[in-house]
Structures are given as structure tokens and as C-alpha cells.
Amino acid sequence: SLESAIRRGGASASSSRRFSSDSAPERKVAILGAAGGIGQPLSLLMKLNPLVSSLALYDIAGTPGVAADVSHINTRAEVVGYAGDEQLGKALDDSDVVIIPAGVPRKPGMTRDDLFNINAGIVKSLCTAISKYCPNAVVTMISNPVNSTVPIASEVFKKAGTYDERKLFGVTTLDVVRAKTFYAGKAKVPVAGVNVPVVGGHAGITILPLFSQATPASNDLSDDDIEALTKRTQDGGTEVVEAKAGKGSATLSMAYAGAIFADACLKGLNGVPDIVECSFVQSSITELPFFASKVRLGKNGLEEVLGLGPLSDYEKEGLEKLKPELKASIEKGIKFAQEN
Ligand code: NAI
């Protein structure tokens, strides 16, 4: 149990490092799409996380190599690579957290919705396996379009009778990471202390950073500055897609963001209090069935969906503008899952 593990760690700890790895409960994390552009650096970062005791790396191919490589790192997690459909069950078995970065990324000129046809099918088949092999796991969805893949996952789980809205998260952490970086640069404050909530969804104008709630507050930013920061956050993914010129989308910053969110989920499961991140979840804070906002994570996954807080007029306008697009993306996902 967590308690006895903490007692054991507390009694024998010779250094804080030893304490953290000895005291944390056993946790298995599975990464689906682990050989990809996001999957590889994310595998590295999860291997470095002392809360992980078992790391399962799954992809259609290439994972034995990735697993052999990261397994040599002298940290706690035992790493196993799994390749191909027939090994998916073993990869998922007993997982506490499943991270899904499987699927194709954008090329210049593409929207996230252009990925729908390929990624919807991938997400559907992976979620079908999750409902079979680890129905209680926390699932963190990176595969785009997140605005549709999360509703697809929910429908797959509902069909299988395993849906628990507290266990399904769309990863929007990269939007927060970008908003923090861009805000710190513009407001000329140290980035380490910056916080910016980002709400709505994860595509274009559905990404709504709430700079009016940014901390530390800045009085130096004009309306034009806020608008430019908002647009840059919304187009941050496209900035990377264009710079990579056909070689994919954000992978390294996404791996960082995915690792931050998975770490928050693990801390929540382990009973660490006051773990709050933004995520795209089943929600009733607007009329839409799914919405990204600050959420509190705990032993059951999602413990509480936090409200939007006070919005500026510019943010209120952005909120109304994003709803039709987000609604359509959610409905497209639900329809796909129901018809396929
Ligand atoms: P990638 O093409 O480099 O890697 C994707 C991996 O998924 C490949 O290794 C591929 O073999 C694997 N894969 C394909 N079908 C699979 C299946 N059925 N089961 C298991 N693995 C499968 O792509 P990258 O750059 O890693 O991006 C992955 C996804 O993440 C894309 O959909 C991309 O749009 C999305 N993304 C999401 C972000 C977010 O903020 N949520 C940010 C950046 C990318």
C-alpha cells in the first residue's frame, strides 16, 4: 500500500532521491505510438519519472529498439517494448495510465481536422483494446484532432460498458506551455513563475488562452499585445509545422507537455493534493459536452472540473466564437464512433 511504502521509504531513506523512488507506489504507464516523433522523447521522459515503476512501449513496429535503448537508463522504471497487434493486450495489461500519441501528424497546409480520417480509426481500435485490457486506466489522448478523438474514445468506452468520464483526458498541456512561454517573453517576467489557463479545445480558434488571468499579472500589455499573444498561442502548432517543412509537427515540446500531464495524473492517483492542470474533458461548464478548462486530478482521475473564472470582453467574444467549431468537431467524433 501507499502508506506502508511511505513508511518503508521514510525509515530507510538515505537521500531524498532514494526516498522518492522507494516510497512511490507501483505504477504502470503504457505509451501507444511510442516509436513515433512524440513517442520516443516521451518514452525517455517517462523513463526519467520516478513515479513510474513499469513502462510499456507499444507501436506497430520499432518499439523493441526504443525500449532496449531507454531501458539502459539507470532509473526505476522497468521498460518493455511491444510491437504489433498481437502484443497490444500485454502492453496494456494492468496499466494505470495510458498515453496515446499514435497517428499521423500534420504537414504544411493541413488543419488538425484533416487528420481525422486516419487517426479516428487508430484511436477507435486502441480504445477498444483499452476497454478490454485495462478498463480502469486513466487515458490521456494526444492524437489529433483532440476535439474529436476524445469524443470518439468516450463513445468506444460507452459501447464497451467501461466509460468513466473521470478517466478520459484530451492533452491540451502544450497550449498552456506555449501560452506561458509567449506571455513571459512579452511581459518580460521570468517564465518559471508564469501561469496561464487555456480553455476551449485544441485546434485553431478553439484554443482560448485566458491572459486576463495570467500570473504574475502584467499592466504593460496592450489590447494589441494580448491579441497577438492569443493568435500566436492558437497558431503555435502551425508555426512548428511550417518550420519543419513537411517533416511533421511538434514532437519535443509535445513530449514535454505530455510528460507534465502524465506526471500530474500519477501524482493525483497517488493522492498528492491540489494537482490542477488544464485538460479537454467531459464537462458541464458550458453547453458543450466536452470542454477544456482547469481540472483537479486525484485518486480517481478527474476529481473536479473548475470553472472559467472571470473573462475579459475579448475572451468572452473568443468563447462565443469557438463554440460552433468545437461543437461540430465533437459531433463529428461521436458520429464516427457510432457509425463505425
Ligand atoms: P509520428 O508519425 O512521428 O508518430 C506516430 C506513431 O504512431 C508512429 O510511430 C506510428 O507507427 C504509430 N502508430 C500508427 N498507428 C498506430 C497504431 N494503430 N497503434 C500504435 N501506434 C500506431 O507522429 P507524431 O509527430 O508523434 O504525432 C502523433 C500524433 O500526435 C499526431 O496525431 C499529432 O497530430 C498529435 N499531436 C498532438 C499534439 C497535442 O497537443 N495534443 C501536439 C502535437 C502532435
TrEMBL record:
Residues 172-336 form the Lactate/malate dehydrogenase C-terminal domain. It catalyses: (S)-malate + NAD(+) = oxaloacetate + NADH + H(+). One of its GO terms (molecular function) is L-malate dehydrogenase (NAD+) activity. InterPro entries: L-lactate/malate_DH (IPR001557), Lactate/malate_DH_C (IPR022383), Lactate/malate_DH_N (IPR001236), Lactate_DH/Glyco_Ohase_4_C (IPR015955), Malate_DH_AS (IPR001252), Malate_DH_type1 (IPR010097), NAD(P)-bd_dom_sf (IPR036291). Substrate binds at R106, R112, N144, R178. NAD(+) binds at G33, A34, A35, G36, G37, I38, G39, D59, N119, I142, S143, N144, M254. Keywords: NAD, Oxidoreductase, Tricarboxylic acid cycle. Residues 28-170 form the Lactate/malate dehydrogenase N-terminal domain. Its EC number is 1.1.1.37. SUPFAM superfamilies: LDH C-terminal domain-like, NAD(P)-binding Rossmann-fold domains. CDD domains: MDH_glyoxysomal_mitochondrial. One of its GO terms (cellular component) is mitochondrion. Belongs to the LDH/MDH superfamily. MDH type 1 family. This is Malate dehydrogenase. The lineage of its organism: Eukaryota, Viridiplantae, Streptophyta, Embryophyta, Tracheophyta.
